[in-house]
Amino acid sequence: MPVALTVQSPQGVRRGDLAPAAMAAAGVLALHVILSGRYGFHGDELVTLSAARHPALGYLDRAPAVPLLARGIGFVFGDGLWPLRVAAGVVHTGLVAATAYLAWRFGGRRQALALAAIAAALLPVFLAEGSLFRAPVLDELWWGLALVLVVRLVDGADPREWLALGLVLGLGLETRWTILALAAAIAVGFAALPEGRRHLATRWPWLGGVLALALWLPNLAWQAAHGWPALDVYREVTGGARADGGPLGPLVRQLVAAGPGALVIAVAGGVWLARRRRWRVPAAVALAAVAVSVAAGLPAGTLGPLYVLLLAAGAVAFDGWIGVDADRWRQVMTFLVLAALVAVPATTPLLAPRDYATLFHDVDADVGEEVGWQGMVHLVAGVRDVLPADELGELRVVTASAGAAAALDRYGPARGIPPGTALSGEGAYAGFWPDGQPAGTVLFVGFGRRELARYCRVVGPLAIVGNDAAVPNRLLGAHIAFCGRLLVTPGQLRAGLTRVR
């Protein structure tokens, strides 16, 4: 007898069914490619490139996977901005594809796949991180792949896919430790429900866990040998998140930042999953991830990758409610697109810098951190040029931010500032600071006069950093000062300025 396909049963995919989702994914990639070089490097990207030139099993403020990948991309394509940004855009494109795939896995039809893909394409947290090559975008990739594997395992995939899940979690741990929240949530989600516990009765989940731990061990060993700096980063990040509106504040803002359309779809998706016995385990994993992240005080963006799961399920829920009513589908799609369009200029370098600063800086300040690095280097070089020649032999530039030091390392040689001139006590750069330095003339960038008074006799500020568009960021208004004489040893200066972020 004939079998009717429903929105709860996966079906064969026809080429026409994939077309809208494929167009959404292609549009995302095109957007990131077009905008990839519009502003400039983000400070964290510059630090990543510097870390890539100092290969290690760990760094004071980051895990090693992103610098290692940047080194590989640089070897193949050059270490310019465009290859890195395209790589980040490819991740966003992959998240769009993963969301559409899960919508199909949940039994969605053409409309559901299109809705899921468009929602993921316009999700602010995916747009923002897909525009920058740094740890959060790879973190989203590993979370998204892990959630896809969870759904496949629950849906009867070969249990050996637990090894793939272990591989993904292990790579995630070498990228950013926040994926521990998802690992804990997966354990809780499977252990909490009878249909999940039967999976744990085989050896494959445990072998997957061993594989994840084996991949994590090199960085764990490095952390142990260096006093566990990741814990200092965690305390600083969570302290800031909890102080800014309490433990629930960041979560609420993260959900609001998804946009009203995507938020409605995601909530519907969570309810849809929880009401179906077949998908209760993924629902439990999502709920546990939220609980663990909130309890741990993690920033709101940590939970962004959950939308891969929730938007897919929500799109299928809408598919069941709307059916084949073309007019209602057009209304839903139009509302989703219009509600999310503000995210594009707010989270990507779409507008001219001055327009971004006026209209959207308060929405997403990270875009502003792509402006002004070369101008700062030119200004430092100009100050250097007016110093007496006998002061320049041992010149070092000590910066308040690691990004400024990385910018000097990248752009300084073209202005006669040799690599290694820049020092910083922030983050990864604290680990690059050579013993016994600075041993001669010192310029300070980004410090206040009162802050420097304990370390040296300050002359200046000799210049103040700005940018043509007056985009607010960490550089804007930074003082460049000359140190007439150090009052402490180089080691004491380094210790006094060292911080994880």
Question: Mind explaining what this structure looks like?
Answer:
A five-stranded mixed β-sheet has the order 2-1-3-5-4, with helices on both faces. The chain has helices spanning 15-35, 43-52, 65-77, 81-105, 110-122, 124-130, 135-154, 161-173, 179-192, 194-200, 204-225, 229-243, 249-257, 260-274, 280-296, 307-322, 326-340, 343-347, 353-359, 373-386, 402-411, 449-452, 490-497; strands at residues 396-399, 422-424, 442-445, 456-464, 479-486. The model is unreliable at 1-9 (pLDDT under 50). With 501 residues, it is mainly α. The longest helix is centred in the first third of the chain and has 25 residues, at 81-105.
Task: Tell me briefly what this model is.
The chain has helices at 15-35, 43-52, 65-77, 81-105, 110-122, 124-130, 135-154, 161-173, 179-192, 194-200, 204-225, 229-243, 249-257, 260-274, 280-296, 307-322, 326-340, 343-347, 353-359, 373-386, 402-411, 449-452, 490-497; strands at residues 396-399, 422-424, 442-445, 456-464, 479-486.
Relevant terms:
single chain, 501 residues, mainly alpha, 5-stranded mixed beta sheet, 23 helices, 6% strand, globular, disordered N terminus
Report the biggest beta sheet as strand number plus sense, adding barrel if it closes.
5 strands, mixed
Average pLDDT for all residues: 91
Note the gap between the termini: 65 Å
- The shape is globular
Class inferred from helices and paired strands: mainly alpha
Report the sheet-strand fraction.
5-15%
- How are helices and strands ordered from N to C? HHHHHHHHHHHHHHHHHHHHEHEEHEEH
Q: How do the strands line up in the largest sheet?
A: 2-1-3-5-4
Query: What is the rounded Rg?
Result: 25 Å
Q: Count up the helices.
A: 23
